[in-house]
Design goal:
single chain; Chromosomal Replication Initiator Protein Dnaa, Chain: A; mainly alpha
Protein backbone atom coordinates (compact mmCIF):
# COMPACT_ATOMS: atom_id res chain seq x y z
CA UNK A 1 0.00 0.00 0.00
CA UNK A 2 1.52 3.32 -1.03
CA UNK A 3 1.75 6.37 1.19
CA UNK A 4 -0.72 8.23 -1.06
CA UNK A 5 -3.35 5.49 -0.56
CA UNK A 6 -2.82 5.55 3.20
CA UNK A 7 -3.20 9.32 3.31
CA UNK A 8 -6.34 9.12 1.19
CA UNK A 9 -7.86 6.56 3.55
CA UNK A 10 -6.93 8.62 6.61
CA UNK A 11 -8.40 11.76 5.04
CA UNK A 12 -11.56 9.78 4.36
CA UNK A 13 -11.62 8.68 7.99
CA UNK A 14 -11.52 12.25 9.26
CA UNK A 15 -14.97 12.89 7.76
CA UNK A 16 -16.54 9.86 9.46
CA UNK A 17 -18.07 12.06 12.14
CA UNK A 18 -20.20 13.70 9.45
CA UNK A 19 -21.29 10.46 7.75
CA UNK A 20 -24.81 9.13 7.63
CA UNK A 21 -25.60 6.10 9.81
CA UNK A 22 -26.25 4.02 6.68
CA UNK A 23 -22.72 4.54 5.36
CA UNK A 24 -20.06 2.10 6.50
CA UNK A 25 -16.52 3.38 7.11
CA UNK A 26 -13.58 1.68 5.40
CA UNK A 27 -11.23 2.23 8.34
CA UNK A 28 -12.42 1.06 11.72
CA UNK A 29 -9.18 0.68 13.67
CA UNK A 30 -8.15 4.32 13.78
CA UNK A 31 -10.38 6.30 16.16
CA UNK A 32 -7.65 6.55 18.79
CA UNK A 33 -4.96 7.48 16.26
CA UNK A 34 -6.41 10.60 14.70
CA UNK A 35 -6.07 13.85 16.62
CA UNK A 36 -6.42 17.52 15.69
CA UNK A 37 -2.71 17.88 14.92
CA UNK A 38 -2.95 14.85 12.61
CA UNK A 39 -5.81 16.43 10.68
CA UNK A 40 -3.67 19.55 10.18
CA UNK A 41 -0.80 17.38 8.94
CA UNK A 42 -3.16 15.48 6.63
CA UNK A 43 -4.25 18.78 5.09
CA UNK A 44 -0.63 19.94 4.77
CA UNK A 45 0.54 16.62 3.33
CA UNK A 46 3.08 16.00 6.10
CA UNK A 47 1.30 13.18 7.98
CA UNK A 48 3.69 10.29 8.80
CA UNK A 49 6.52 12.14 7.10
CA UNK A 50 7.94 13.78 10.22
CA UNK A 51 9.44 12.12 13.31
CA UNK A 52 6.81 13.80 15.49
CA UNK A 53 3.99 12.32 13.46
CA UNK A 54 5.45 8.80 13.58
CA UNK A 55 6.05 9.17 17.32
CA UNK A 56 2.43 10.19 17.93
CA UNK A 57 0.99 7.24 16.00
CA UNK A 58 3.33 4.69 17.61
CA UNK A 59 2.73 6.01 21.12
CA UNK A 60 -1.04 6.11 20.69
CA UNK A 61 -0.91 2.53 19.44
CA UNK A 62 1.32 1.47 22.34
CA UNK A 63 -0.98 3.11 24.88
CA UNK A 64 -4.08 1.55 23.37
CA UNK A 65 -2.44 -1.91 23.43
CA UNK A 66 -1.35 -1.48 27.06
CA UNK A 67 2.38 -1.57 26.31
CA UNK A 68 3.31 1.26 28.67
CA UNK A 69 3.20 -0.77 31.85
CA UNK A 70 5.50 -2.78 34.12
CA UNK A 71 4.34 -6.15 32.84
CA UNK A 72 7.02 -8.66 31.89
CA UNK A 73 4.74 -10.98 29.94
CA UNK A 74 6.60 -12.17 26.88
CA UNK A 75 4.03 -10.96 24.37
CA UNK A 76 3.90 -7.44 25.81
CA UNK A 77 7.69 -7.23 26.11
CA UNK A 78 8.12 -8.26 22.47
CA UNK A 79 5.52 -5.78 21.24
CA UNK A 80 7.12 -3.04 23.32
CA UNK A 81 10.51 -3.95 21.80
CA UNK A 82 9.09 -3.66 18.32
CA UNK A 83 7.61 -0.22 19.05
CA UNK A 84 10.97 0.91 20.41
CA UNK A 85 12.64 -0.35 17.23
CA UNK A 86 10.17 1.61 15.07
CA UNK A 87 10.71 4.80 17.08
CA UNK A 88 14.48 4.42 16.85
CA UNK A 89 14.53 3.53 13.14
CA UNK A 90 11.73 5.61 11.62
CA UNK A 91 11.41 8.55 14.02
CA UNK A 92 15.13 8.86 14.80
CA UNK A 93 14.62 9.15 18.56
CA UNK A 94 17.49 8.47 20.95
CA UNK A 95 17.62 5.73 23.56
CA UNK A 96 16.99 8.06 26.49
CA UNK A 97 14.01 9.71 24.82
CA UNK A 98 12.42 6.35 23.97
CA UNK A 99 13.08 5.18 27.52
CA UNK A 100 11.22 8.16 28.93
CA UNK A 101 8.24 7.50 26.66
CA UNK A 102 7.97 3.89 27.84
CA UNK A 103 9.08 4.61 31.43
CA UNK A 104 12.13 2.39 30.99
CA UNK A 105 15.86 2.82 31.40
CA UNK A 106 17.92 3.61 28.29
CA UNK A 107 19.77 0.30 28.74
CA UNK A 108 16.45 -1.52 28.41
CA UNK A 109 15.80 0.34 25.17
CA UNK A 110 19.24 -0.60 23.81
CA UNK A 111 18.62 -4.24 24.73
CA UNK A 112 15.16 -4.19 23.13
CA UNK A 113 16.38 -2.72 19.85
CA UNK A 114 19.32 -5.13 19.65
CA UNK A 115 17.00 -8.01 20.52
CA UNK A 116 14.74 -7.07 17.62
CA UNK A 117 17.71 -6.93 15.26
CA UNK A 118 19.28 -10.22 16.38
CA UNK A 119 16.33 -12.53 17.06
CA UNK A 120 13.97 -11.07 14.49
CA UNK A 121 13.62 -14.52 12.92
CA UNK A 122 12.59 -16.33 16.11
CA UNK A 123 9.12 -17.80 15.50
CA UNK A 124 7.80 -17.03 18.98
CA UNK A 125 8.96 -13.42 18.69
CA UNK A 126 7.35 -13.10 15.26
CA UNK A 127 4.06 -14.47 16.59
CA UNK A 128 4.13 -12.05 19.52
CA UNK A 129 4.67 -8.95 17.40
CA UNK A 130 2.52 -9.98 14.42
CA UNK A 131 -0.55 -7.91 15.31
CA UNK A 132 1.21 -4.67 16.16
CA UNK A 133 3.78 -4.97 13.35
CA UNK A 134 1.08 -5.51 10.73
CA UNK A 135 -0.80 -2.48 11.99
CA UNK A 136 2.25 -0.21 12.05
CA UNK A 137 3.55 -1.49 8.71
CA UNK A 138 0.21 -0.66 7.14
CA UNK A 139 0.28 2.95 8.31
CA UNK A 140 3.90 3.93 8.88
CA UNK A 141 6.40 1.58 7.28
CA UNK A 142 5.33 1.87 3.67
CA UNK A 143 7.10 1.29 0.42
CA UNK A 144 9.29 4.20 -0.56
Amino acid sequence: MSKENILAELKEYTILDHMQASQTPRIRALPYLIGPEDIDELNNGTFLQTPQSVKRVVMRTAKSKGLICRSRKRQLVDQRSYCMHVLFTYAGLGYTHIGRLFKKDHATVIYSIRKHQTIGKDFEYIDNIKEISNFLKQYIITEQ
